């Protein structure tokens, strides 16, 4: 069994945004392996997303952007279950990041947008699922 320190838990929390106890439990289950703990948290996020799929996500943020040439624009709506989440700075920053990536890549449709790379080898869809696990609310991008 690995020696899990508070610094290890905090580092995982800073990386993933997951709760302290979730991070600690993931590190314990992964026997201190940081990358394995991240993957465990991601899988838990997928399970949370599946459980919350039937919920309504009627609150959110709408982001509209145009390119510098002013000849192409996008509108992204990122919805959540509660206004508490949708008014959070991290949520709005996440919506803006999705909008920036979408504007830069000009996907043909929503499915192509979700497949765009967002962070490392993670897609926008992966990051949305990760956010669901982090905040424990349904999030939907339109």
Principal-axis shape equals elongated
Indicate the proportion of strand residues.
Answer: 15-25%
Mean pLDDT, as a whole number? 87
What's the number of extended β-strand segments? 5
Q: What is the element string, with H for helices and E for strands?
A: HHHEEHHHEEHE
Between the first and last Cα atoms, what is the distance in angstroms?
44 Å
Query: Do you know the CATH architecture of the largest domain?
Result: 2-Layer Sandwich
Strand order of the largest sheet: 1-2-5
CATH superfamily of the largest domain: Elongation factor Ts, dimerisation domain
Tell me the CATH topology of the largest domain: Tetrahydropterin Synthase, Chain A
CATH classification, class level of the largest domain? Alpha Beta
What structural class results from the helix and strand content? alpha+beta
Helix content: 40-55%
Uncertain segments: none
Given the structure, what is the number of helices?
Answer: 7
Major sheet size, sense and barrel closure: 3 strands, antiparallel
Number of domains: 2
Radius of gyration: 16 Å
SSE layout and pairing:
Blueprint: H1 6-16, H2 20-29, H3 34-51, E1 59-66, E2 73-80, H4 83-86, H5 89-105, H6 110-114, E3 117-119, E4 122-123, H7 124-135, E5 139-141
Antiparallel strand pairs: 1-2, 2-5, 3-4
Describe the structure in brief.
The chain contains 7 helices and 5 strands, in the order H-H-H-E-E-H-H-H-E-E-H-E. By secondary structure, the protein is α+β, with helices and mostly antiparallel strands. Strands 1-2-5 form a 3-stranded antiparallel β-sheet. Strands 3-4 form a two-stranded antiparallel ribbon.
């Amino acid at each position: 069994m690995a020696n899990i320190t508070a610094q290890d838990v905090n580092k995982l929390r800073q990386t993933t945004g997951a709760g302290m106890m979730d991070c600690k439990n993931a590190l314990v289950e992964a026997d201190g392996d940081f990358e394995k703990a991240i993957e465990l948290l991601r899988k838990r996020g997928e399970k949370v997303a599946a459980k919350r799929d039937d919920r309504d996500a009627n609150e959110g943020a709408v982001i509209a952007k145009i390119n510098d040439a002013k000849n192409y624009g996008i509108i992204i709506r990122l919805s959540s279950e509660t206004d508490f989440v949708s008014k959070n700075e991290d949520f709005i920053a996440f919506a803006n990041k999705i909008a920036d990536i979408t504007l830069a890549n000009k996907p043909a449709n929503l499915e192509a947008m979700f497949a765009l790379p967002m962070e490392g080898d993670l897609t926008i869809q992966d990051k949305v699922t990760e956010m669901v696990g982090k905040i424990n609310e349904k999030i939907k991008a339109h």
